[in-house]
Design goal:
Length: 260
C-alpha cells in the first residue's frame, strides 16, 4: 500500500498538525523533529513552511518511508531510519552539511524514552575534539584561499583575486564558529545567530562581522581581507592552532594587516 501524501490544510500549521497526528498514530514512527525557520524566533514569514524530520524504526516499519523528500508549500519532509538519524550530520556522514538543521530543532514526538532528544542534543554543538579538528581544517583552507587572493591582488589580477576572496568567506566562518565549538549556521540564519547567541568579542558581532563579509564578497578589498585575517589569527592562536598558521611560514606576511 502506497503512502498517501500529506493532505494540505488551510494553513501550514493546520497541515503540520494533521500530519503529526497521522504520524503519531503510526507505530513505525519513533520520533518527529521540527526544524527550519519555524524553530528560529522571529524568522518565519507568511510564506514559511514546516520542515519535519520523521524518524522510523526501520525502512519497512511504515509506508511513510515513501514520503522522504516530499515537498509542498506547507510541509517539507525528511523521512529517515533511527540508525540514519543517529549519524546524520555528524563527522563522516555525507550529509554533514545539514547539521545546522538540528541545532535549534524541537522534538515533537519521542517514543524512545528520551533517546530522540539525546541524539538531537549530540548534534547541537561540536564536541571538543571534533571542534579542534574542524577548526584546524577550515583554518588551513581559509589561509590558502586568502593567500591565493592576496597574491593575485599583489600581481595585478584583481578579478581573480576577488574570486578567491569570495571563496575564503565560507572557510573563515567555519573556522570562527568551530573555534567556539559551534556549528556554522546556514547563511540565512547567520545574523540571527550572531545577534541571539553572540560568539563573544566585538569583532564577531553582527554589526562588525557582516559588513566585513559583505565587503569581501562585493569586491575582495585586500585591506578588509587582512583585517578579517588579523582577527581570525588572534582567535586561532588563542585556541592553540598556532601550528597550523606557522606551517605557512613567511607567507603569512601577505595576509597580515599592512603598516601604512
Amino acid at each position: 500500500m502506497r503512502a498517501v501524501p500529506p493532505v494540505p490544510g488551510d494553513t501550514p500549521d493546520a497541515t503540520l498538525a494533521a500530519f503529526v497526528a497521522r504520524a503519531t498514530a503510526d507505530p513505525g514512527v519513533v520520533g518527529l523533529v521540527l526544524s527550519g525557520s519555524q524553530v528560529h524566533d522571529g524568522m518565519p514569514t507568511a510564506r514559511s513552511d514546516h520542515d519535519l524530520h520523521v524518524v522510523l524504526r526501520d525502512r519497512d516499519a511504515s509506508p511513510l518511508s515513501e514520503l522522504d523528500w516530499f515537498r509542498s508549500a506547507h510541509l517539507d519532509l525528511v523521512v529517515i531510519t533511527l540508525a540514519e538519524f543517529r549519524r546524520r550530520g555528524l563527522p563522516g556522514d555525507p550529509d554533514g552539511w545539514c547539521r545546522y538543521a538540528y541545532v535549534h530543532a524541537r522534538v515533537l514526538l519521542d517514543r524512545l524514552d528520551g533517546e530522540i532528544a539525546t541524539i538531537l542534543d549530540r548534534k547541537r554543538t561540536l564536541e571538543e575534539g571534533e571542534a579542534r579538528s574542524a577548526a584546524a581544517g577550515a583554518l588551513d583552507a581559509y589561509v590558502n584561499q586568502a593567500y591565493r587572493s592576496l597574491k593575485s591582488y599583489r600581481d595585478g589580477r584583481d578579478a581573480l583575486g576577488h574570486l578567491d576572496a569570495a571563496e575564503s568567506v565560507p572557510y573563515a566562518l567555519e573556522t570562527v564558529f568551530a573555534l567556539h565549538r559551534r556549528v556554522r549556521p546556514y547563511n540565512k540564519y547567520l545574523q540571527w545567530e550572531l545577534e541571539r547567541r553572540p560568539l563573544g568579542g566585538e569583532e564577531w558581532s553582527a554589526g562588525r562581522l557582516l559588513p566585513v563579509l559583505r565587503r569581501i564578497l562585493a569586491d575582495g578589498d585586500p585591506h578588509t581581507q587582512r583585517a578579517l585575517f588579523g582577527g581570525v589569527e588572534r582567535a586561532a592562536r588563542a585556541a592553540g592552532h598556532g601550528t597550523v598558521l606557522d606551517s605557512w611560514g613567511a607567507d603569512l606576511r601577505l595576509l597580515r594587516p599592512q603598516r601604512q
